[in-house]
Amino acid sequence: MKVLFLTHAFPRYDGDVAGNFLLRLASALDKQGIEVKVVAPSAPGLSENAKFNGTGVDRFHYAPSRYETLAYGGNMAEQVRDSWSARFTLLGFLGAEFRAAVRARRSYQPDIIHAHWWFPNGLVGTWLSRLSNTPLVTTLHGTDVRIARSVSMSRPAFRHVLQNSIVTTAVSRWLAHEAQSLVSAPAPMVAPMPVAVELFSPGGARKKNALLFVGRMTKQKGIDILLQALAKLPAGIELDLVGDGPERAPMEAYARELGVQDRVRWQGTQSQKKLVEFYRSASALVVPSADEGLGLVAVEAMLCETPVVAFESGGLPDVVQHDRTGFLVSERSPDVLATAIEQLLARDDRGAALGAAGRMRALATFAPESVARRYADIYKNAIASAPA
Fold first, then answer.
1. CATH number at residue 220
2. For residue 46, which of 9, 109, 155, 202 sits 20 to 30 Å off, Cα-Cα?
């Protein structure tokens, strides 16, 4: 079987975090006898056609180099919302991705198209599917559902993609419910993405009072609430923030305003190999996000036997089992979050048993082999149910 992935995020170099779970899925599918080819945007220094860890990748240009900023920054929706030039660039993006997808379809002859994120790739996928009479599977990852929820004008396109996909999958139960509540379409199947179980593993010594945040620094990630919670915790508790984004500078100023700047270390974006070291040494990972599509950083931490404290929001309940692999905080409040962190650190084993149970759950649910088998069945059923 041959599958054509359409995506706006795929690793550009070894260790790149952009769409790395798609590379893991492609590699795991290959072990199931399913070949994958990827169509993804270009970036400086990348060749247009290449093999990435054995997976063929066709990269497309969608604008002059200095305007190719929509992909890989994690803020495509914000750019398009705030800038007319970004909107014109998006039109070029859609056209360029479609042309690249048509070329790949002709040369590769896939049995199925798998679009990741309904926008923009699912939309392009519907055009390619109709043109080539090839069944389309579309996966919802989270940011794309937020677009459909917050931008009412996008709903018809969202409905079009879901209704023209043979199968729609969502990486969490919450996302599947959100999608069904927004438009009339068949309920998405829940099928998470894989995590690098061979990379994220326990080891080394943990620091005594070291909290960790990992993620892109946007308002949705709730860093302000985490900093407020830190201010309520004893002075010996410190925080590493790994990531970058538009909220970093405002949050650095906010940390100074709260008087916790000396307890916060701003680590910037790190490679996955470096992330392992942060997970292994942290006392706990804190995920203060709202409406997280799934929360893969929580899975990565659990694989390193790091207990997780997270708000009971979005897809995180699919990952964290309260009082078994970590703590889920039901009230979105810095006071309640600080209390949960204190309770975890006050345990006799400082959460070690929670971390060990978390690793076992993560291995069972998010191992690439398990996810690949799930998607292999989805592909086979999609092909069998596609109209002749």
1. 3.40.50.2000
2. 109
